[in-house]
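Writing this down once: the sequence line spells out the residues, with the fold written below as integer tokens. This is how one looks:
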Amino acid sequence: MADKIKYGIYPNPKPDNDGNTTYQVRHTPEGTMNEKEFLAHLKYHNTCNTTMMLSSLIILKDEIIEQLRENKRFRIDGLGTFQMKVGLATKYDEEGNPVKPHFTDPDKITANDVEVQGVSFTPDPSFVKALKEGISTRNKYGRGVAGRNHPYQREEIIKFLDNYLKEHHSITRKQMEYELNITAYRAQKWLDSIIAEPFSKYYCKKQGTTYVYYRYGWE
């Protein structure tokens, strides 16, 4: 089952040529996966060495910085291209307030007026294609419902798990994701938090590259 896009609908600040308010959609992130969660996720769902993965990420970060400093773009096939973003450096007045750079003569711009302002990332077309293939805004009625999924509470998750495990004896993250119509990330967050609770009634076992979840005494 494809994940659902979570989005919000917002009015554009300026009306169209006829004076009508128009609207746009923007993605609504559902949290941020940090480094610790990423490595835990790998541990649960892959056989790779997480220590080696962390070292590889540090090396990759350092290499990207080094190549950007050499004024090169950095491309990873299948992922995308990183490039340095530069712009005019912000100046400050005598009271410490930022002053927007303003030049009417290009010859007046010197190296002292230029600074690094960030890094741009252009995804590889194959990366975007893979993302589109695994996500949707549609349900069986053809309406865009993403972003309006039921916000489950812990009690509801426990009730669902107990009912499911009484019948099936075990559950995987993928099965929970499908049954509750939630994202893989959200399903994993719930499972991780519940089995980590003090005196938890639930536990997991790894079978191949998949973690299977049980309730004690209900196997």
About this structure: The mean pLDDT is 85. Residues 50-69 form the longest helix (20 residues). The helical segments are 35-45, 50-69, 125-133, 154-168, 173-180, 184-195. DSSP finds six helices and twelve strands in the chain.
